[in-house]
């Protein structure tokens, strides 16, 4: 449920006494994920989140446009990191290998973050309202892939091949995530890497 940022309550921007207020994308996302886990996504409101974070609604909306964005954390920053990583790869590295390495790196998280990331992805892949909202984020992610592929292939990012490559990369990632969520002992990065290798073996190499 999207909340109107213009609606304010008395004292809404005063932090709760007794704790330091959450002031980063990551902190707010973690607090929200914990509440979603305890109460359910639909049952948790923005007011619940700002109370737990010790911030006001106005501050919340400086970081996130809606409750639906919270599971994604600072996704724009992650996309910028992926762009920089792709740009840093050697030009003579085959396109399929460059994309595989970049997608693996995009999904690398510190060990202590893995349980949080599992909860995040369970929500994103199972809650209907989040699944619908995710199409916007997936579009942004695919655009980064398509732009890189187009540059390598001498195409435009809106041409068929770069767009198809971007969709394929997303599909491989989501297939790996489904396997990862179904098995607590699975290694996410290995699954993603393996998915890319299997597609290359099955369908052959991509030009570039």
UniProtKB/TrEMBL annotation:
Residue ranges of domain HTH tetR-type in the record: 22-82
DNA-binding positions: 45-64
Keyword Transcription among UniProt keywords: yes
Keyword line: DNA-binding, Transcription, Transcription regulation
Pfam families hit by this protein: TetR_C_14, TetR_N
Biased composition (Polar residues): 1-10
Region of interest called Disordered, as start-end residue ranges on this chain: 1-23
InterPro entries reported in the protein's UniProt record: Homeodomain-like_sf, HTH-type_TetR-like_transc_reg, HTH_TetR, MftR_C, Tscrpt_reg_TetR-type
Domain of life: Bacteria
Keyword Nucleus set for record: no
Gene3D superfamilies assigned to the protein according to its UniProt record, in alphabetical order: Homeodomain-like, Tetracycline Repressor, domain 2
Protein name as catalogued: Mycofactocin system transcriptional regulator
Annotated organism of origin: Microbacterium awajiense
Organismal lineage: Bacteria, Bacillati, Actinomycetota, Actinomycetes, Micrococcales
């Amino acid at each position: 449920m999207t909340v109107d940022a213009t609606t304010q309550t008395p004292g809404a921007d005063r932090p709760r006494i007794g704790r330091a207020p959450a002031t980063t994308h990551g902190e707010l996302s973690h607090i929200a994920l914990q509440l979603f886990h305890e109460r359910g996504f639909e049952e948790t409101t923005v007011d619940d989140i700002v109370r737990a974070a010790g911030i006001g609604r106005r501050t919340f909306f400086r970081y996130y446009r809606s409750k639906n964005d919270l599971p994604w954390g600072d996704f724009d920053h992650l996309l910028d990191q992926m762009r920089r990583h792709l740009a840093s790869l050697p030009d003579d590295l085959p396109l399929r290998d460059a994309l595989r390495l970049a997608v693996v790196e995009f999904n690398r998280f510190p060990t202590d973050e893995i349980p949080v990331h599992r909860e995040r992805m369970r929500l994103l892949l199972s809650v209907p309202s989040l699944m619908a909202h995710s199409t916007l984020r997936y579009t942004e992610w695919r655009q980064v892939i398509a732009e890189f592929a187009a540059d390598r292939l001498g195409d435009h990012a809106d041409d068929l091949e770069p767009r198809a490559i971007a969709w394929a990369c997303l599909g491989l990632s989501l297939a790996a995530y489904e396997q990862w969520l179904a098995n607590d002992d699975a290694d996410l990065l290995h699954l993603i890497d393996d998915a890319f290798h299997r597609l290359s073996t099955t369908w052959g190499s991509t030009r570039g």
